[in-house]
Amino acid sequence: xxxxxxxxxxxxxxxxxxxxxxxxxxxxxxxxxxxxxxxxxxxxxxxxxxxxxxxxxxxxxxxxxxxxxxxxxxxxxxxxxxxxxxxxxxxxxxxxxxxxxxxxxxxxxxxxxxxxxxxxxxxxxxxxxxxxxxxxxxxxxxxxxxxxxxxxxxxxxxxxxxxxxxxxxxxxxxxxxxxxxxxxxxxxxxxxxxxxxxxxxxxxxxxxxxxxxxxxxxxxxxxxxxxxxxxxxxxxxxxxxxxxxxxxxxxxxxxxxxxxxxxxxxxxxxxxxxxxxxxxxxxxxxxxxxxxxxxxxxxxxxxxxxxxxxxxxxxxxxxxxxxxxxxx
Length: 328
Ligand SMILES: Nc1ncnc2c1ncn2[C@@H]1O[C@H](COP(=O)(O)OP(=O)(O)O)[C@@H](O)[C@H]1O
Ligand SMILES: [Mg+2]
Description:
The chain folds into two domains: 4-224, P-loop containing nucleotide triphosphate hydrolases (Rossmann fold, 3-Layer(aba) Sandwich); 229-295, Alpha-Beta Plaits (2-Layer Sandwich). The protein is built from twelve helices and 14 strands. The longest helix is centred in the middle third of the chain and has 16 residues, at 169-184. By secondary structure, it is α/β, with parallel strands linked by helices. The protein starts with a strand and ends with a helix. The strands form three sheets. Strands 6-7-8-3-9-10 form a six-stranded mixed beta sheet, with helices on both faces. The chain is elongated, with a radius of gyration of 23 Å. Adenosine-5'-diphosphate is lined by residues 15, 18, 20, 38, 40-46, 322, 325, 327.
């Protein structure tokens, strides 16, 4: 878990005048699950496409599995598997045919191909669908088949672009189990997602990416802990009076106004600080009507570092807006 299997330095990518990837640097360690978490349009697919050599490397440097992306694209391609954001399966081929065709493309001998196909169908639990045409598979099954295809050549790194986009919550959670199983087989995973919970549950480390830039990188635990130990939500009888009082208190790190109440990050144990806050407000004649204490979540991390709520943007809406603007 210590060697860097992906290393990226000062990577830029422009479409005409528009900078989609704006100088990112990061490393992925061998064996880990690493995520890019960011809203639609953040530059995730562009970055993954450069790393997988589908887009040319314009500026900066990147190595994948020890190969320079700009100088040795063929070597990079031989070391990786890719699952794209959109389904790319031939509708009229069966699961087994898809995998066999892919292995053949990479000149795998037929006995090895058969063995690997059996292993992979078992890994993604599609054994009883092996002779089913892909047009008859559910969305989750299609994704699992694409993951199996990405793994045919035993790549050292598997790239997954939004692996659970469009799947229902239950299917998404099962996909996470498959992705973990692949990782436990020894494959390093690089994935992109706009789902907070996905990044949170799956990743050893996460980079939050916004407007083509990496805002912060760390484990889910580290990201949440930089915010503070506990987070409180308050509604009071005098909101405009409450904010300066809280802001002035020791152990209160950051106060943020919400539509009705406010949130405050605490630099210590909330169960001890909260009674003091209520006392202090009470001494000023301010009554607390609603109070809630919790640990910072990935949503809180995102809001803290980008100043925006990912949920508010309406992932589906903005994604179709981007499509209309001619993304694909
Ligand atoms: N082929 C393209 N031509 C012009 N702009 C593009 C193209 N592909 C992507 N973009 C723009 O680059 C930005 C990043 O897109 P993308 O990498 O797809 O982001 P994400 O995968 O995070 O949603 C978006 O603003 C998108 O509209
Ligand atoms: Mg994308």
